[in-house]
# Entry
Amino acid sequence: MPRPSRILEKRRALLPIVARTFAELGFRRTTTAELARRCGVQENILYRLWPDKKAMFIAAIGYVYDQSVAIWNRLLAQGAGQDTPAERLLSYESRHMGEFGHYRIVFAGLSETDDPDVRAALSDMYRRFQGFVEEQIAAHRRRGRRRTTPEPGLAAWAVIGLGTVANIARELELLSDAERRRLFTAVGRVLLEGDSTGS
# Structure
């Protein structure tokens, strides 16, 4: 059996530090010298792992998705009584949304969308999040056996928007932790259940 690539192992080991640095400093203020310092390596080591700072940033965008879904999959694997998987995710996110600061990587990326590679990475990340959430909403609604609107795909985009608003409120200190939890729980529940009247 072939050994895993040392480059892939090293990338996996350093990526959380790289992502945390971009989350704290943004894309423009982060230098490869600072990344190397925080990673405890020389800059040339980083350039063996990624061709340039932009590639490091794009890897950090992918990390945002991978970390979120890894947490969600662990949560879903545990099960929890009568709650549907979608209800468990909503409950979890109402308490933990934004606590790692990964949303700041996404916000920094939005100011770099004139770069086609960053734009593609963000588009891919958002589409993957939307697909994951849509699956959970669709499964939840099938359990109720009612036709509701908006359809799960649009409701999933609205949930993503809700998460963005909650993170803006966190970043700008517009809402307390308790208010953000109530916002996410109340509006999230409406989006999850939908409107059975079809209006």
Residues 116-144 form the longest helix (29 residues).
